[in-house]
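Q: My labmate handed me this sequence with no annotations at all. I'd like to see what the chain might look like in three dimensions before we decide whether it's worth expressing. Could you predict it?
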Amino acid sequence: MMADRTSEYLKGLLRELCALPRETEWVEFKVNCNDSQEIGEYISALSNSAALCGKASAYLIWGVKDNNHEIVGTAFTPGTMKKGNEELESWLLRLLSPRIHFCFYEVAAGAESVVILEIARASNKPVQFQGQEFIRIGSYKKKLKDYPEKERELWRIFDQIPFEDLAAAEHLSDEDVLKLLDYPSYFDLLGLGLPADRKNILQRLSEDDMISSCNAGGWNITNLGAILFAKKLDAFKHLKRKAVRVIVYKDLNRHETLREQVGTKGYASGFVGLIGFINDLLPINEVIGKALRKKVTMYPELAVRELVANAIIHQDFFIRGTGPMIEIFSDRMEITNPGVPLVKTERLLDSPPKSRNEALASFMRRIGICEERGSGVDKVVFQTEFYQLPAPAFEVIDENTRAVLYAHKPLTAMDRDDRIRACYLHSCLKHVNRTFMTNSSLRERFGIEEKNSAIASRIIKETLGSRLVRPYDEHMSKKYAKYVPFWA
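A: Here is what I predict for the chain of 488 residues:
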């Protein structure tokens, strides 16, 4: 069943629904209808129509006239009604497929009794009652199969319902919204002046889908608004586990934890602080290159920033009980997020951007945390090459995606997998920059002197054997050979 509703909430909801100019596809008014079959069909029709209309819930209300929405009261009492020997609610639930959430509420409207049936929107497939799917056409209940264009539209919506649009908190006053959201950060990150009055603050948040108007009056905070700008994520119960966890281990394994911290702020308002916190925990590496000798954090800040942003943006929010996690070991750093990638891991560097959470990704682009043009993996690979680190690894572990940054180690300490992964990613980086991997470019990537070009040749041969790269031109001599990724 749905979460319990307070009397205040239900009375506010009734006022708002009665104020509608007419019945809609997601609201139906009755006076004394007690036909069980009819009620079941209405649940199917209203649930499916709520999805089409972009509503979180639909409503069937007894005790209100459908022509003028006058509250007249009802004799309908769902708690005492049975179908055969079975309680009405149990009978309806058994015959619905899928078994969506719905709940009857009895509301006192002055001297009159009103019943509100709140029905969850269809989410993965059209809702059936006794094997039949229904829909609302205007204020009429019809069979969905008779309206194929509506059925097609409904299936398109099921593929498109984003997590960001759903409500994180409902029926909030202006004051409650501003208490829960770090709205000054919203305006600051967008480079906007903070409006002097509450009305314009709320209007701007609404225009950016951080909040939305509530059917029962007041506001809903959307998942988008909460996950980006919550002052405290644990104020939103189902988002508490989506906070970013940072764990530091003593050695190469997870046996002994030195430090663990869970983020509290929304992703946007807390991102700069999160990256600063991570960098303060990282070991120091001395970089020696052409006219370059300086101490920097072991992992380039830009690479860390890109991978953390990716973990946040590309996670699957519908996987419950887990969120992004950054684990720091003595020899590596692992960044994990729930959800498998939408492209193959070997194509992360070159693939165009794809995100399950496009509204979240779009806003993060607007405030400069990530870029429109790609996943940022090309930046990560470039940074690890520039700072003479082993190539990053990208893995799928169960239902999770993991990116691994490795601490510095010389070429002589790298194993075969390390060498092949670095060679392949180097070829990918060259290809997206519209050039080619050569023996010379690979020597530069590993810091191999020209006189030891045979070492680079052996690494290329290993990678060719793994079928991850191929010659650009089979007829070109090995001395001048160029190489591209296997998919190019």
